[in-house]
Every structure is written in structure tokens, then in C-alpha cells.
Amino acid sequence: MAEDKFHIVINKAQQGPFGVSQIQAMIREGKVAPDALAWAPTLAGWKPWKEIPAIAQGMETKPEAQVPTFTIPNAPAPKAEPAGGLAISLQTGWLHDFIFFRKMITPWLIMRAGWILTGLCLLGGAGLFFKSLYPWNAMELLSGLGLLVIGPVVIRIYSEVTILFFQINETLTDIANQQKQGKGTVIP
User: Fold this and answer.
1) Residue by residue, what is the 3-state secondary structure of the chain?
2) Do the beta carbons of residue 38 and residue 46 sit within 8 Å?
3) From the CB of residue 178, how many other CB atoms can be counted at a distance below 10 Å?
4) Among 183, 184, 129, which residue's Cα sits nearest to residue 151?
5) What are the pLDDT digits (tens) for 13-32?
6) What residues of the chain score a pLDDT lower than 50?
7) Domain boundaries along the sequence of the chain
8) Dist. CA 18–CA 36, nearest whole Å
9) Which of 1, 59, 70, 150 is most buried, by the most CB atoms less than 10 A from its CB?
């Protein structure tokens, strides 16, 4: 009995026909997406390859991810992971992103500074308001109310506009990385 030949969708394009062993090899290599559709003349229509017993038999649900490694010149040899303890890896995580400037801390700092300045505006405005009550001073009263109401709004707008520039930069970086990986542009 001849082996069924299947057409499969790879990178949004129909390809094939391939034999089952060829498709399984491509799945193991990560060339075929876990939710890719497949079709053969014996099937009524296109189905996810996981639902076709001939292909899915003995296959893992997802290929192993390749973790990039980085070499630090003149660095001491890594120590073995302590038994029962956690080892810090510079290959992934927040420390790696921080060291290699993949994530920016400035928006985080701007947000915290905005909170502090808003608090100072509220305290200063309340102080001016209560100070103006005795002896009565209408100018200090209006200044206090203005600082209470307008100050936090101005600080919030300034903070949001500044953070927006960083978010635009991160979005453009993500789009560039997706294009380099051949995934195309994905707009959320």
C-alpha cells in the first residue's frame, strides 16, 4: 500500500505533496507550525495536522525551542547549579534584557516620578489652600485650588506623552524583529 501524500500549509503557503515521514521531520525541525493545516485527497477538507492520525502519531505537540547563548569574553567558567537552588541565567529574563538594553527603564522611572510629582502637587495645593484661609488671601486660595486640580492633570499628560515615545520605539523594534524572523508585520 502506498503512503498517503499530504499538502501542508507552511508560512501561509500551501506546499507539497509530502510523505508522512517528511512532514513529521519538518514538524520536529520546527518548520511546520503546531496549528498548520494539512490535506490529502482521502480527506474531506483541510484539517490541523494534529487531527490526522497518520501525521500526529508519535509526534510531540510542539518543537523544542532554541535558546540563544551568549559568550562573555574573559568571564570565569560557569559554576554548577546548586542542588535544590536556583541558578541565574543570563540567556533570558529581565536581567538579560536590562544588561543588553532590550527593555528600557526610563518609562518606569518617568511613571514613578509622575506619581511623586502628583503627590507633591496635591500636598502643595492643599497647603496653599489651607494657608489662604487664615488670614484670608484669595490669590493663595486660587493658586492652591489650581495646583490641586490642574497640577496632577498637567503632570499626567506630560508623563504619558514622554512614555508614548518609548512605547513607539518598542513597537517599531518588535515589528523590525518580526520582519527579520520572516513573520511579517503583526499589528495588535
Assistant:
1) CCCCEEEEEECCEEEEEEEHHHHHHHHHCCCCCCCCEEECCCCCCCEEHHHCHHHHCCCCCCCCCCCCCCCCCCCCCCCCCCCCCCCCCCCCCHHHHHHCCCCCCHHHHHHHHHHHHHHHHHHHHHHHHHHHHCCCCHHHHHHHHHHHHHHHHHHHHHHHHHHHHHHHHHHHHHHHHHHHCCCCCCCC
2) yes
3) 13
4) 129
5) 888 888 888 888 888 888 88
6) 1, 63-64, 67, 77-90, 185
7) 5-56, 99-180
8) 14
9) 59
How far apart (Å, rounded) are the C-alpha atoms in residues 22 and 55? Answer: 10
Average pLDDT in the chain = 78
**How many C-alpha atoms does 170 have within 13 Å on its Cβ side?**
13
In the block, residue with C-alpha cell 510542539: 62
Return the C-alpha torsion angle 69, 72, 75, 80, nearest 10.
-10
Which grid coordinates belong to 141? 486660595
For residue 44, CA distances in Å to 39, 40, 102 come to 8, 8, 47
pTM above 0.90, yes or no: no
Grid cell at residue 10: 507552511
Cell numbers that stand for 16 in this block: 507539497
Using an 8 Å Cβ cutoff, are 155 and 121 in contact? yes
